[in-house]
Write a structure and sequence with these properties.
Layout lengths: L1 E8 L2 E9 L3 H4 L2 H6 L11 H14 L7 E3 L1 H4 L2 H9 L4 E5 L4 E3 L6 E3 H6 L7 E8 L2 E11 L8 E9 L7 E9 L4 H9 L2 H13 L10 H27 L13
Parallel strand pairs: 3-4
Antiparallel strand pairs: 1-2, 4-10, 5-6, 7-8, 8-9, 9-10
Helix pairs in contact: 8-9
């Protein structure tokens, strides 16, 4: 089981980092690890730990990006949200309905579901979070302010997405954004996670991401890395085809 970091924009998207998740029953059995080529320096790390490790590498490498988004597994992990805030990185992270948030009342707390259930009907607005396979993906959206001791220049929101056909089906997101960021922009970022699934689908179908029979740690990283490189190359080709520019002959990290 792996954890991936994806990079996406209107020009294309690709997978840019990866880590193999090893459960405790592996890392606690060093003989088993050595047989699979896993070094003694590889210790147990949770999936959120692996995610944070890749985010740190992306920042250290100077990769330009505007927002970070992720699903509930990572959004409910406080150390990820705090690290992003410490580095002034805007984010829209999915959280479960049971997520505790600080309300605008000092020392007030509430579960995400409770806070959203108290919003008035006119707080909800139908907005598209991007185009899907069948056109615009329209949901009802609402945002409630959280964190009474906000940092100057930044906003904290609990964003909620409600199905138009099933009002009970609500998804929740914790948002950290520059002050004055409109609701529509938060919605757009929340909807951008579909690009991750598109990366997986394309990589599996076109670059063999899951087409391997390796049984070694190093071999897995080699296969996955080659598949990701091929996916990035295809993303470049597609972007250039749309612009009508001649195709590159090799992958160049400095290529626009």
């Amino acid at each position: 089981m792996a954890v991936f970091l994806a990079y996406g924009s209107e020009k294309g998207r690709a997978l840019i980092d990866r880590e193999l998740y090893l459960p405790k029953d592996w890392t606690s059995d060093r003989q088993r690890c050595r047989a699979a080529g896993i070094g003694d320096d590889v210790e147990f790390a949770t999936k959120p730990d692996l995610d944070l490790r890749m985010l740190e590498r992306a920042v250290e490498a100077g990769i330009p990006f505007g927002w970070v988004t992720a699903d509930e597994l990572y959004g409910q992990t406080g150390r990820i949200r705090m690290w992003l805030e410490e580095h002034d990185i805007p984010h829209v992270l999915a959280v479960p309905k049971s997520q505790m948030v600080m309300t605008m009342e000092f020392f007030g707390q509430a579960r995400a579901q409770e806070l959203v259930s108290g919003l008035s009907d006119d707080a909800w607005k139908p907005l598209s979070c991007g185009d899907g396979a069948h056109g615009p993906r329209v949901y009802d959206w609402a945002a409630a302010a959280i964190r009474p001791w906000r940092r100057q220049g930044w906003d904290h929101w609990l964003l909620a997405r409600r199905s138009l056909t099933d009002p009970v089906g609500i998804a929740y997101y914790i948002c950290f954004s520059p002050a004055g960021t409109p609701l529509g922009e938060l919605v757009r970022i929340a909807g951008s996670r579909w690009m991750v699934e598109e990366c997986f689908q394309t990589a599996k179908n076109e670059t063999g991401l899951d087409h391997y029979q390796v049984r070694g740690y190093t071999a897995w990283y080699r296969h996955i890395t080659l598949s990701m490189a091929a996916l990035a190359f295809l993303a470049i080709l597609r972007a250039e085809a749309k612009r009508g520019v001649s195709k590159p002959t090799a992958i160049d990290p400095s290529y626009p």
